[in-house]
Amino acid sequence: MTAPTREVLSFGSFSLVPSERLLTREGVTLQLGARTLDILIALVSRPNEAVSKRDLMARVWPDVTVGEGSLRFHMASLRKALGDGQEGARYIATLAGRGYCFVAPLSRSSEPGRQVAPDAADIPRTNLPSRLVRMVGRADSVLMLSTQLAASRFVTVVGAGGVGKTTVAVAVGHDLVQSFAGAVLFVDLGTLSDPNLVAASLASMLGLSFQSQDPTPSLIANLRDKRILLIFDNCEHVIEAAAALTARIFASAPQVHILATSREVLRVEGEQVYRLAPLTVPPDDPGLTAAMALTFPATQLFMERATASGARLHLNDANAATVANICRKLDGVALAIELAAGRVAAYGLQQTAALLEERLSLLWVGQRTAPPRQQTLKATLDWSYGLLSDLERVVLRRLAVFVGQFTIEAALAVVTSATVDEALVFGAIDSLVAKSMVASRPVGAMMRYRLLETTRAYALELEADAAELAELAARHASYYRRWLEQSGAEWPALSSAAERAPYLAALGNVRAALDWCFGPHGKADVGVGLAAAAVPVFLSMSLLMESARWSERAILALDPGMRGGPQEMQLQAALGLSSMFTRGSSDAARGALTRSLAIAEERGEALDQLQLLGLMHMFHHRAGDFKTALHYAKRCSAISGTVADPAAVALAHSLLGRSLRHSGDLNGARRELEAALQQGRGASRASGLYLGFDHHNYAGVALARTLWLQGRAAQAMERIRQTVEDAASLDHPGTLSIALAWAVFLSLWSGHIESAEEHMDWFIAHADAHSLKPYLAVGRGFKGELAIRRGDVKGGVETLQRCLAELHAARYELLTTEFNLSIAQGLAALGRQAEGFDLIEETIRLVEGNGDLAHMPELLRVKGNMLLSMSRPRSEEAEALFTQSLEWSRRQAALAWELRAATDLAALWARWNRRDEARELLQPVYERFQEGSDMADMKAAERLLASLD
């Protein structure tokens, strides 16, 4: 029998096995997204042949309607993975108006098929809880749910509390984990008390950042082209929010499958309901035998759990009726059966049955109007609590303060008191775990515990001393404040769901503690400290709305003695920053940042002042007030001389360099920015990050722009390429957005339209995925720019005008000058010279007022061209403006602007038959360029010089 063969396609250093969807480079497997790999296979299967965009989209997205932007985005990812265009390598050509073509030399070969043992590092990782070693009576349910999920994509498991919904959902997830290539995410909604946090929690688990009040668009954009199984557990207490979110995901993300568990139906479009019934129980039959009883899942579960708890119990014909009676009394509810079985080792089968009968019979009669399964579960919990020792009861009641998971360290810190020492707490928790009153499972190297929600709800209803409860809640809040202070530095580095899961679970306790602290019976002073520790973590996890909410609550709760201290400083800074991104650059945001900085100055802490000056610089920079931003940058630079922290010094250089570039001091800007990058190499990357913003990358972006203006286009493009690559590796959405935005602008300035479009598609897709609202408006502005350059001047101008209206509303004025220049030139091209001229004059007044003088040479040049394009050209005035533009360019050392102004002035002189003067002006400027010969401006100057000979 011959071994199967596989076809191998080789090109450059790459080998592609289409049948195995395997791409390697020099033997190393490359990880490409499914869509990106589909594009490569489609192109390689038709080498040296034009493949239209329509054909590619039909093959890659056969069942989904997408725009060309999606294709361009994945094509950019493919080219980046192949290194297309680097060091002379060329694999994919873009054929204008026709599509794409694979152009690299390609060889085909066959080799024996092989089976590769999976490498441990490649095994998919999920955040699913551990499944039971053996699940009793649910195999059919798991199989049916798996089949139903594949067919309908959205299934809700509905049943009573304790019936086993979570157990079944986890089992389905484990069965399907390979089918989804490891992309199975378990979302425990039971830890949330606020329905508004449902979408935010999922966004954080996915590692998404958003800068808007509603993260749902971010989730939809991120999930739209992903194949993933989302398991939403415990939906009933946040049912409206869960229903709205799952409906949006189901409708907008065609490859996402959803499995929900709830005590009631979500009642949304697309939902299929699977009602999970209790385990079947033996009938009340006097002739029941052991063999007959063991055919029922309820009996099987009871026996397995009793034996596992240490009971020496063997089912026989004599005791089969007793076991069956217990299972019937518990109505087949899995949780109730497990709790009862766990007591057999201590009390024996007969006594367990007697106690259960006694307790349940009283409660059953008293609550006939309640649903039967709720009666049974309540009775079981009541009975189980009655069997605990006094110490176990105390510990259980105290553990109910925790929401979701907690560690043994947390339990010891909160539960231990003057009457219950640590040794007793250890013993009690071990006993409660053994009695199934507390669940446990390992997470990494640490065991984590939780009360099942039904158990916790029961414990919270028990009578307890109000003073004791208040003390317990205060200890709980104090513990999580300490935990946040100790672990807060780790949060910015977390990106994957597996890394975030333990921390996000703990955030449920932080939220619960904050709710208590600022509630009617809480301690606001404890809440202030907790909020001050929590808001930086909320910021680094991109939970901006929560940061703003708790900052405001805590600031209002400050007593006079706490004002002006480090906690108010932290809270005001967090409020200002989160408000800036969620509510715009408002007066309230500026007021909070100003107050925070004033406190830092009063305290005299240099590092605090540097960080807050950086935030003030960011605020005014985004608002387009470049003069004020320069003021803060200079203050930051002065203070940096008093500290020895490399990251702080690098921050000061970065801020000053960016401000000097706006002011037109390009030489000074370049010195500062290069110093920032050099200084930053001596600092750890984590220390270079402040609340998710990497000033090292910001310096790289500003340096690229400076180099371009100084006539070093090749160096500028290489710098922006490195900066984009570096920003992408950091997984900080805001940082990557800034880098991509200026990659678009530099490509546009250079006349590289295709490169600009590829970066624009990436920028828009990224902003959409992370709900970065101002940047989405900027992306629409980029589309307007490209439309104008491709001939749709009217549409481009209208798009840019709408974009600027959105940015003005958000007080985001960073790019106003850039977009005004494009609009003005577009208006002139439409014959609306007067409007364009007025806009240019308005913009000149704007930059004179706000300090954005780096644009002055270009504004004067464009104004001169406006005068020349009028029905009665004002040539002499235009000549004067071109001359002023040259003077400004030379003062700023802006060789790129100087070339444009010299070209326009030389062209004007040539029309006046002053050809020699024109050549003498333009030739030396042109010859000063050592790079950038492929720039549109260089080609225009070259053509003009040729015409002057």
TrEMBL record:
GO terms for biological process: phosphorelay signal transduction system; regulation of DNA-templated transcription. Residues 6-104 bind DNA. InterPro entries: HTH_77, NB-ARC, OmpR/PhoB-type_DNA-bd, P-loop_NTPase, Sig_transdc_resp-reg_C-effctor, TPR-like_helical_dom_sf, WH-like_DNA-bd_sf. GO terms for molecular function: ADP binding; DNA binding. The keyword DNA-binding applies. SUPFAM superfamilies: C-terminal effector domain of the bipartite response regulators, P-loop containing nucleoside triphosphate hydrolases, TPR-like. Residues 6-104 form the OmpR/PhoB-type domain. Keywords: DNA-binding. It holds the Pfam family NB-ARC. CDD domains: trans_reg_C. PANTHER family: HTH-TYPE TRANSCRIPTIONAL REGULATOR RV0890C-RELATED, REGULATOR-RELATED. This is Transcriptional regulator. It comes from Hypericibacter terrae. The gene is ttrR.
